[in-house]
Amino acid sequence: MLETVTTSPDFPIPDSQKAWVLGDVGELIHTEKPIPVPDKAEVLVRIDAIAVCGTDIEVIYHGPPALIHGGGPHNKNWTPGHEYMGTVVALGPGVDEYAIGDRITVEIHAGCGRCKRCREGMYTSCHNYGKNYQGNDKGHRANGFTTDGGFCEYAVNNINTMVKISNHMSDEEATLVVTAGTSMYGYTELGGLVAGDSVVVTGPGPIGLLGVAVAKALGASPVILSGTRDNRLKIGTKLGADHVINVRNEEDVVAKVKELTNGIGADFVLECSGAPNALNEAGYMVNRGGKICLAAFPSEQVPVDVMNIVANNIYLYGIRGEGQSGTKRAAALMEMKRFDATLIHTHTFHMDDLPEAIRYAKDRIEDAIKVVLKNDASLAKQAAAE
Ligand SMILES: [Zn+2]
Ligand SMILES: [Zn+2]
């Protein structure tokens, strides 16, 4: 570590770490890497636990939206993973916003801080995304997308990408804050949810399920969740859905939503399914002047009923990541125990077993929803508590 970096004997830092790197398509290699050194406005985080995200699987098997050294992420000695939590163990020069020993969870995008969108607070839409390598360095960071991520033991984080968490929140729960933060950002882009407004969430994946929880915590009424799997819809009910619709059993989902919203349709739709018919259905479910947030990667391109959108003054928003400090606001709701995010955590693995954890998440083995990996520090803490 450099002299300007502050460390503590309470948290000794080893000379190197075990880290997973992305090899060929779908290939993860366990290797040894140096411990990164925090610069100005950065800290070193000891990673205690990390959740697998659908986007990790996208990156590992397809590449985008990861962008490493101006190109794809494969075979670049690069570490994926972005939904982690841990402990601050070293401070970069001048950092006094955090102390060594702080428990934190992370969000992804630091942004470059110098482009138009960053200056507007839209750091997840940074115009210099991925520009952080030699000869083209604007300082952008998105750990697990454009810089090294969290499937390892130590990572450097910009101080603006962290949220302090209390000891009341478990490591597992803390890894889910960023997912709830994405849902929160969706509602923020829709104009901020007003208590009493009706919300439909389509697709009970992690963002959809926590989208239900966040909507309910913000006072939305009614909250309606649609999907195809009864076990997930049941979790949605526990997280606060007033009504669930299994689209396999319901002949006309749009009619059902209208029936549940006094005949006029919902004020907001948070689309988390990525299904081919999802946007058009959302357009028919939402009321005139209503708003749709698209939060899922689609599986294919589809024709869109533009006439319906124009004639009814419907607003469409695409969101990337968890902007506008959504993660901090979601963490606040979780600290208040306004919902139990751990209902979506289904499986836990040791960090050494990453390929198996990815397989569970990807193939939804044993109905896996959120799969969490833990490093020894987290397992030791757990053993001490038991
Ligand atoms: Zn994610
Ligand atoms: Zn920027």
CATH architecture of the largest domain: Alpha-Beta Complex
Radius of gyration computed on alpha carbons: 21 Å
Please report the number of helical segments. Answer: 12
What kind of sheet is the major sheet? 8 strands, mixed
CATH H level, superfamily name of the largest domain: Medium-chain alcohol dehydrogenases, catalytic domain
Which CATH class of the largest domain?
Alpha Beta
What is the overall shape?
globular
Explain this structure to me?
The chain has 386 residues and is of the alpha/beta class. The protein has two domains: 6-108 and 143-164 and 340-385, Quinone Oxidoreductase, Chain A, domain 1; 179-318, NAD(P)-binding Rossmann-like Domain (Rossmann fold, 3-Layer(aba) Sandwich), CATH 3.40.50. It is built from twelve helices and 18 strands. Strands 1, 4, 5, 6, 9, 10, 17 and 18 form an eight-stranded mixed sheet that branches. Strands 13-12-11-14-15-16 form a six-stranded parallel sheet, with helices on both faces. Helix 6 links the parallel strand 12 and strand 13. Helix 4 crosses helix 5. The longest helix has 13 residues, at 177-189. The protein starts with 5 loop residues before the first strand and ends with a helix. The model has no long low-confidence stretch (mean pLDDT 96). The structure holds zinc ion (2 copies). One zinc ion is lined by residues 53, 55, 82-83.
